[in-house]
Amino acid sequence: MASVFLYHVVGDLTVGKPELVEFCETETVEAAIRAVGESTEAGIPVWKKRSLVGGIENNEMRQQRFVGILNSLDIVAFLARSECLEDQEKAMRSPVSEVVVPSNSSLRQVDPATRLIDALEMMKQGVKRLLVRKSVVWKGMSKRFSILYNGKWLKNIDTSGGSSNNLSLNPNRPSSSSTTTSSRDKFCCLSREDVIRFIIGCLGALAPLPLSSISSLGVINPNYYSVEASSPAVEVIQNLPRDPCAIAVVECIHGHQCKIIGEISASKLWKCDHLAAAWALANFSAGQFVMGVEDNVSSRSLPDFSVNPTVGNSSQANGGGFTRARKFSSRSIGFSPGNSSFGISRSMYRGRSAPLTCKVTSSLAAVMAQMLSHRATHVWVIEDESDDVLVGVVGYADILAAVTKQPAAFAAANRSCEGGVVNEVQT
User: Fold this and answer.
1) Strands 304-307 and 324-327, how do they pair?
2) Which residue in 274, 257, 246 sits closest to 374, CA to CA?
3) pLDDT in tens, 258-300
4) pLDDT-flagged residues of the chain (< 50)
5) What CA–CA distance (Å, rounded) separates 130 from 121?
6) Alpha-carbon torsion 165, 166, 170, 173, what sign?
7) Closest Cα partner for 352 from 328, 334, 372, 377?
8) How many CB atoms lie within 10 A of CB 187?
9) Could you say which of 16, 160, 198, 236 is the most buried, measured as most Cβ atoms within 10 Å of its Cβ?
């Protein structure tokens, strides 16, 4: 385990992070689309309203108000329901509480002086966001043994002996670990993407791990969700994966081997035309959905459905009427159309429809750079000597587990992969 995780604290990563503006579960789906599109990440935390406005709220009360994290795939899946397609105006004005998947454990409030290694352990266990207070009187310390200045640690230090080596608390300085705050306190959210961005800036301290292949590190996760390209795309909404929130669109080739041709994910649908994407999800096959097919589909089969012109326009907070009619276009949901039939040729998948992939021999540093440059939550892993044969997926949790692995465990994983190959995955 690199010492950089021991000598840095969470507060070091929050510099420049914007203040959290709570998004309430009573807000409409239309407002959620705007909020997700304007967010710096592909999802927004959803909260219950405060029971006492202006009152005192402790950490436990705040944690209980947190509902879950809403992303674009959740919204598109909701709008693709038959009842929502029949009355899109009603669906867009539905409360977010009907859409968001409850997951109270995906967010945790931590002190700014929490060790980074402790934060990483939380994220490895499923925490996706860390809520960090910005309004406390605290100065970040990025130096050796800065962990000793955590308020909780200082309380356990014996200061009665009179030794000059003992640390003492300043009575005029508020503790950063205070558990009760007023409504004026400001918070920011720290995501796993922020942690990966910090890690990639400290690659030298992690050597030689960043240059090791993901297969030798045991980072590849073979347990991924997939759907056949010929299957209806709407099948994916029956059981949406949560981490990563992505479904591979595959074609079976030889035996149980699968070739990835695209993906349906929250990151791909981020900032898309949600109504158009929902209609396509409900009416097209998975292969057609990820490619775009309007060049080869009769215009008579495409409906004239209305799209709110204010969605995505932050200047009109309350939204307007459903007045502008538009036809479905794969470009409007963020895909670049190619050939209208999903066949063997890889060249037909272009632009944003192409899945983000890496080889089993790719280095950990290269995979992290891919994720950050594409603002993706995951990278699909394909075999080294084959044409897009899917092996697994690498997500945030897999990377965090690798960089915090003990040296002995890393050496054992490396020896087990020497001269071996990654097992084929049966989906």
Assistant:
1) antiparallel
2) 246
3) 899 999 999 889 888 899 999 999 999 999 998 865 433 343 3
4) 137, 140-183, 294-302, 305-328, 330, 334-352, 410-411, 417-427
5) 12
6) positive
7) 334
8) 19
9) 236
- Are the C-beta atoms of 45 and 163 separated by less than 8 Å? no
pLDDT for 377: 92
Task: Give the C-alpha separation, 415 to 409, whole Å.
Answer: 10
Cβ contacts of residue 236 below 8 Å, gap of 6+? Answer: 77, 225, 227, 247, 264, 281, 286
DSSP reduced 3-state for 203: helix
Strands 258-265 and 246-252: antiparallel
3-state class percentages of the chain: helix first, strand second, coil last, to nearest 5? 35, 20, 45
Omega of the bond prior to 309 within 30 degrees of 0, cis?
Answer: no
What is the residue-wise DSSP string for 217-235?
A: HT--B----EEETTSBGGG
Q: Residue 296, SS3?
A: helix
Under 8 Å between Cβ of 243 and 73? no
**Distance between CA atoms of residues 140 and 172, nearest Å:** 18
Specify the pLDDT at position 387.
Answer: 73
Contact 46, 99 (CB under 8 A): no
Q: What is the pLDDT of residue 167?
A: 34
**In what side-by-side order are the strands of the sheet with 246-252?**
226-228, 246-252, 258-265
Which ranges constitute the DSSP H helices of 227-291? 266-269, 274-283, 286-291
Contact by Cβ (8 Å): 331, 350: no
The Cβ of residue 150 has, within 10 Å, a number of other Cβ atoms equal to 19
230-to-16, 174, 235, 266, 380 alpha-carbon distances in Å: 46, 61, 11, 21, 20
Bin 307: left if φ > 0, else alpha if -120 < ψ < 50, else beta: beta
Question: Among 274, 266, 245, 334, which residue's Cα sits nearest to residue 31?
Answer: 274
CA–CA gap between residue 294 and residue 350 (Å, rounded): 15
Which pair of tokens denotes residue 356? Answer: 């983000």
User: What are the φ/ψ torsions at residue 297 (nearest 5 degrees)?
Assistant: -110, 135
Q: How far apart are CA 237 and CA 281, in angstroms?
A: 9
Residue 186 forms beta bridges with which residues?
A: none
